[in-house]
Design a protein that fits this description.
5-stranded parallel sheet, globular, single chain, 13 helices, two-stranded antiparallel sheet, about 15% strand, alpha/beta
Length: about 280
């Protein structure tokens, strides 16, 4: 039997009553290392200061805690960075009296090019249920599972994870941890409003890269590939060879280079990296 619980730092019903910064959240969703670290630390500290810590101790006397982010293919999702910084803050405290937490990836077979944040509830359910997720059932057996995500809107991801765990026969305690939890009238479009509160164009992306450090994720990669070609051409010419090479590898890894709407910008990137590589040899 699976015992499921949920924890979140921020609860909101609309963007007028937020207890967190939409600008910071938008930057985090588009790869800002500065705000991935800030949000991850905030989630960990809030969790450590909650009544949940005592409950964990009561439920994990001989169990190992395993922490996962939302599923991903070859390019991490934004919640992967959130999870990493959560662990950095949580583990030193938790490991004083317990085994250090273990990190685990939930694999997904596909990575759609559509913007999940812009989907309706029905579209989200279809996208999630039609994807193939996998988890190491031998590794998680007998352990306590934490699934970390940045926000819960319709709960489609959470339901899909529960279904996955039931399918592999997992029995035990599962805790879903979110930075923010939407409790409004089920308007999924509010997520898109938050996602793009700061990010409007590639100039905004360039600001993050130059001033806050960048952690590649699927959203920022698709944002770049979806940009107008002239804008992308100017933007990418101002990035380092290392950045461009890494971006190209991520694009190929998720097979975005085969998607028609991405091909023109990808080809510009490919030519640029090839030219810069030859100039280095």
């Amino acid at each position: 039997m699976i015992s499921v619980s949920r924890f979140s730092i921020h609860k909101f019903t609309d963007t007028d009553n937020l207890t967190f910064s939409a600008i910071e959240y938008s930057k985090f969703k588009h790869g800002s290392k500065t705000f991935a670290q800030k949000l991850g630390r905030e989630l960990a500290r809030g969790f450590l200061g909650s009544i949940w810590l005592k409950s964990i101790h009561q439920n994990t006397s001989n169990n190992q805690v395993v922490i996962c982010s939302a599923p991903w293919k070859n390019i991490p999702v934004a919640s992967t960075a959130l999870k990493d910084f959560f662990i950095n803050e949580f583990n030193p405290v938790w490991s004083i009296d317990n085994k250090a937490v273990e990190d685990l990836k939930v694999h997904r077979a596909h990575s759609y090019n559509e913007d999940y944040g812009a989907m309706s509830k029905e579209q989200r359910e279809l996208a999630i249920t039609s994807d193939d997720f996998s988890i190491d059932k031998a590794f998680i057996k007998g352990k306590v599972l934490f699934f970390i995500d940045d926000i819960i809107i319709t709960g489609a991801h959470e339901r899909r994870i529960k279904s996955l765990l039931e399918a592999v026969g997992f029995e035990g305690w599962v805790l879903f941890l979110y930075y923010a939890e939407y409790r409004g009238e089920n308007d999924p479009a509010i997520e898109n409003e938050l996602n793009y509160a700061f990010m409007k164009n590639l100039s905004d992306m360039d600001y993050i890269i130059k001033n806050e450090g960048v952690i590649f994720n699927t959203r920022l990669v698709k944002f770049m590939l979806n940009a107008p070609h002239d804008e992308f051409k100017q933007f990418i010419s101002n990035q380092s060879y290392c950045f461009c090479s890494l971006l190209k590898n991520y694009i190929i890894g998720n097979e975005y280079h085969n998607i028609e709407q991405f091909k023109k910008n990808y080809e510009q990137l490919r030519l640029l990296t090839s030219h810069r590589k030859s100039s280095l040899t």
